[in-house]
Amino acid sequence: MNPQLTDRILLATAATGLLLVGLAYAIWGGAAALGAAAGAGVAVLNWTIMRFLSRGMAAGKVTRGQFLAMTGMKTAGVMTLCWIAITRWGLSFDGFTVGIGALVLGVLVGPKLMGPVENAPHDAQPEES
User: Fold this and answer.
1) Is the pTM of this model over 0.70?
2) Residues 91-124, buried b or exposed e (16+ Cβ, 10 A)?
């Protein structure tokens, strides 16, 4: 796991979320921009939790089974939060959907913001004789 990469993805997710809020405002107006802001917030929260869980797994603090259980609970929590945001809080579905798309864009854009990453010695392939 590359901590610099996960940090860049988090920043890219937040930045693309802001851009998507502006896009939602330009297309649908203020209500959609509010929904997009909430969706982008959920996207950033989702990545932050995954980054935290992944770092714990990489450090050996949690087992694979614990990681999978916590990831499942995180997914259920995010799904519940999305449902509540749209159905109970009345946020714009279009705006929220656009905003939560920041997670996908952050994962795509984040690695492009970094220079080349050198492989660690343990990742090197042995030479054939």
Assistant:
1) yes
2) bbebbbbbbbbbbebbeebbeeeeeeeeeeeeee
Note the pLDDT tens digit of each residue in 42-83: 999 999 999 999 999 999 999 999 999 999 999 999 999 999
Phi, psi of 29 (to 5 degrees): 105, -170
Q: Whose CA is closest to 44, among 13, 88, 20? A: 13
| CA distances from residue 125 to 2, 5, 7, 119, 121 in whole angstroms, order as listed | 18, 22, 27, 10, 9
- Cβ neighbours, 10 Å, residue 66: 13
| Domain locations along the chain | 3-113
Report the alpha-carbon distance of residue 52 to residue 34 in Å, rounded.
27
In the numeric block, which tokens belong to residue 74?
Answer: 């995180």
pLDDT per residue over 11-44, tens digit each? 999 999 999 999 999 999 999 999 999 999 999 9
Determine the residue type at 27.
I
